[in-house]
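testing teh design pipeline on a random one, pls ignore if ur not involved
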């Protein structure tokens, strides 16, 4: 019989709270490695438990991942009514967290997108749609590594067909593709590409489009509105604008896939930029928190409402 979880990992301070439980910093006792412990109370409604089971099943599928851009899953353990899901710890927090100190400049956006596309290409080839791409689900390590996390609503395309589709309504409304919202429409991995485009907009502008609207209103607006574009002032390069437009194509089948986007001119322009530059974002955020959190650039008051909760 395998040893109990508290003999393998030591639970430390609380990092954040998510929909299904709390996330703690932990230590793998035999190696001293820092890990993230997602502690889920299984005394929750059945629907929630099935979501958790889906996440665990998907994480298990990704356990042998060699993709440095997908969060590494260590395993899960039962402890009384609690399920401990153990993953790599991203000490730098999420992109959404570091954004509290200000918008993300174009060069950092480029590196984060480049690395996120590696993760998406990996997931999509494995037949997985993430379904909840947003800055809060892109994590950063101290060294600047970019990792995609939170597979709570991810879906496996179980069909052997390349054209398999999903039709369930999940994700976070502001980042959802129009076809995910529209009743009766099916969607596939291209829905993640739309959400990636919205995430780029979120990083560069401070919030996703329609963030000033309530969620239900945003859900009504997204399918009826023209695809979002950056403001027409000169602060974003044309290549960055072209990349956004490619992601946010109204026609899902016209959107490039992750591999194709990785070859976009804008992404290629950051080919020689090291992920270590992302450490600047973390340092900027740490400096901001030390000064008591006065904004270095105007993010808009609504940021607090959309910040990530683990």
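output:
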């Amino acid at each position: 019989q395998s040893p109990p979880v508290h003999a393998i990992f030591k639970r430390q301070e609380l990092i954040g709270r998510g929909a299904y439980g709390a996330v703690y910093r932990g230590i793998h006792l035999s190696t001293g490695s820092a890990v993230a412990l997602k502690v889920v109370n299984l005394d929750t409604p059945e629907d929630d438990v099935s979501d958790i089971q889906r996440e665990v099943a998907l994480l298990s599928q990704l356990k042998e991942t060699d993709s440095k851009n997908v969060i590494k899953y260590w395993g899960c353990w039962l402890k009384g009514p609690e399920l401990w899901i153990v993953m790599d710890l991203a000490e730098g927090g999420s992109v959404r967290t570091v954004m509290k100190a200000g918008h993300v400049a174009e060069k950092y956006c480029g590196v984060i997108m480049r690395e996120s596309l590696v993760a998406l290409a990996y997931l999509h080839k494995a037949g997985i749609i993430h379904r909840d791409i947003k800055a809060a689900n892109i994590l950063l390590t101290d060294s600047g590594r970019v990792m995609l996390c939170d597979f709570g609503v991810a879906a496996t395309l179980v069909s052997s067909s390349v054209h398999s589709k999903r039709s369930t309504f999940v994700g976070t409304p502001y980042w959802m593709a129009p076809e995910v919202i529209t009743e009766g429409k099916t969607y596939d991995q291209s829905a993640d590409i739309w959400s990636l485009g919205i995430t780029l907009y979120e990083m560069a502008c401070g919030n996703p489009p329609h963030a000033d609207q309530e969620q239900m209103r945003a859900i009504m607006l997204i399918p009826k509105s023209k695809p979002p574009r950056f403001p027409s002032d000169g602060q974003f390069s044309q290549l960055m604008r072209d990349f956004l437009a490619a992601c946010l194509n109204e026609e899902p089948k016209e959107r490039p896939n992750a591999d194709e986007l990785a070859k976009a001119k804008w992404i290629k322009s950051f080919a020689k930029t090291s992920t270590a530059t992302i450490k600047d974002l973390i340092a900027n955020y740490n400096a901001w928190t030390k000064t008591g959190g006065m904004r270095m650039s105007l993010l808009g008051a609504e940021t607090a409402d959309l910040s990530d909760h683990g």
